Amino acid sequence: MKLRLTIMSALIALLAPQAHAQEPPAQTIRASCRTPSAMGDGTVFNCASEQARLEAPPGFAFAQASLSGGLVESGGTKPACEVEWTDFVPLSVGSESTQPRVLTVRARANSQRGYGRRGPGWANCEYSIQLVPYAAQ
Description:
Elements: H1 2-21, E1 27-34, E2 46-48, E3 52-55, E4 60-62, E5 68-75, E6 77-90, E7 98-110, E8 122-129, E9 131-133
Antiparallel strand pairs: 1-8, 2-7, 3-7, 4-9, 5-8, 6-7
């Protein structure tokens, strides 16, 4: 019985670091905005969402090249998604290769343009990104 407990304890100790080493799930960030309808006289409205901010968990950074997604729904004119990266960290001690720890996204749009054209503008942005571990300095 004591041997079984020792073997089980050893297996748990061996498997625990592997469970932590599994790839973390992709992170998702969203931003959206909507304008009022354009006026009949050609007046156009615009919108910009608040900045959606996503921070990587401690010990991780974002793999910039893994960013996927973008504008998932839009209307009006000039719908756009703006992406900004900040807080870059080296992936390993002494490395010149860096990746960001913070991702911000903002949605922008204008209502429809032109005389007699009425309608709102909107932009819905959605991105997914993978995490990568980094060695703290």
